[in-house]
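S2.1 Query sequence (PIRT protein)
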Amino acid sequence: MENPPKSPDGSEKSPPSKELLTSNTASTLCISSRSESVWTSASRSKWEIYHKPVIVVSVGAAVFLFGMVITSLSCIQIKNKNVYKMCGPAFLSMGLMLLVCGLVWIPIIRKKQKQRQKSQFLQSLKSFFFNR
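Output structure tokens follow.
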């Protein structure tokens, strides 16, 4: 068992740095538990909210159309037919996957926005009734 270090006056007291450490840790946990995005009511534009899924849908549609063109070239072109037959379906599937992921992402964001609005409303009600 280790003895606590003695202070300069000779008493066996824990150093002040350990006392401050526990109090700072508690206040830091309280501060870090409240992220700024949840507690601020700054409204964001539709583009800021939906820009990622819109970009994914756009890229997916472009890759899907590119896959359709390459697949149709395999039917028309005689030269390099095997390359078109291999690459066309690959681009078709990647484009379709991105397209579907983006289209599914949009309702998920809408649901999260509704939950966030409900949460902010409940927080304002709580603060109104409990801070009086």
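The chain has four helices and no strands. Residues 17-23, 27-39 have pLDDT under 50 and may be disordered.
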